[in-house]
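Example S7 (structure tokens).
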């Protein structure tokens, strides 16, 4: 009979371990997760967008001169109501460059390349390399990025975009 009592006591210890260990793991995950969340929020609240106000202003001028006719005011796109609309030739209309579409899925260098070399996907996006310099294209990208939220610019642009969808 004593053996049964010992088995019962050992069983209770094992039951306690089976509850305590997962509870401790969950607690640790919660503490670490809370710490990381607090750190990311404090980073988000720091002053400054990381953008150069002078470059953004210059880029806005270049945008108004070269891009606004197709991509619309403040990068809203040719048809903000339907960003996947097509023209009479079956080509997509100019997409939004603000954060409402997918411009932020590309890196700065990819955007510069599209501006200078045109789009292989949409012939309506012509190459601008004979009209503007690479520095001008980079300045345009700086303006385009000013149309995105700080969160998109810092945490979601380029290869990180899938984490933000």
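Recovered sequence:
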């Amino acid at each position: 009979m004593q053996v049964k009592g010992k088995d019962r006591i050992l069983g209770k210890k094992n039951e306690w371990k089976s509850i305590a260990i997962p509870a401790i793991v969950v607690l640790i995950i919660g503490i670490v997760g809370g710490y990381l969340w607090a750190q990311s929020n404090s980073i988000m609240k720091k002053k400054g967008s990381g953008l150069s106000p002078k470059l953004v202003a210059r880029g806005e001028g270049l945008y108004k001169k070269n891009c606004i006719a197709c991509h619309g005011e403040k990068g809203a796109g040719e048809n903000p109501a339907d960003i996947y609309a097509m023209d009479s030739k079956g080509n997509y209309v100019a997409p939004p460059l603000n954060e409402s579409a997918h411009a932020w899925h590309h890196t700065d260098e990819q955007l510069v390349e599209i501006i200078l070399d045109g789009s292989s996907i949409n012939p309506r996006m012509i190459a601008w390399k004979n009209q503007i310099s690479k520095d001008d294209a980079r300045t345009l990208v700086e303006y385009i990025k000013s149309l995105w939220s700080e969160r998109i610019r810092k945490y979601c642009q380029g290869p990180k975009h899938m984490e933000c969808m």
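Notes on this example. The radius of gyration is 26 Å.
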